[in-house]
Amino acid sequence: MSLPACPKCNESFTYEEGHLYICPMCFHEWDKQDQEAAEEALITRDANGNQLNDGDDVTVIQDLKMGKDVIKQGAKAKSIRILEVPVDGHDIQGRIDGFGTLYLKSSVVKK
Ligand SMILES: [Zn+2]
Fold it and tell me: Could you tell me which of 89, 50, 61, 65 has the C-alpha nearest to residue 77?
C-alpha cells in the first residue's frame, strides 16, 4: 500500500509515525483517520452503494421531473462524469437520450 501524497504541498515523501502521516518537505502532519475520511468522501456511490467512475453507464431508478418533462425510471445515462464539485446537490453528469447532457444525483441511479 502506498502512502498518500501530502495534502498541503503534494509531495510524496510521506512517512508514518503512530497514528500520523508526516510530510518531511513542509512538516505538515495529519491523522490517518482524517486521511481515510477524506478518501471516502471522494468516492461517489450509486443508490446501492457501488462506487461510480467516470465513463460508467447507469440507470435511473425513479421518475425524475425535468420541468414539464419526466425522465422515466429505467432511463439510461451514458458515460457519466463524476463532478468534483457538486452542482445544486447533483454530483454526476450524464447523457440521456432525448434530454441531452444533464446533472444527476448519484442517489437516484444504479450501475
Ligand atoms: Zn507537505
Answer: 61
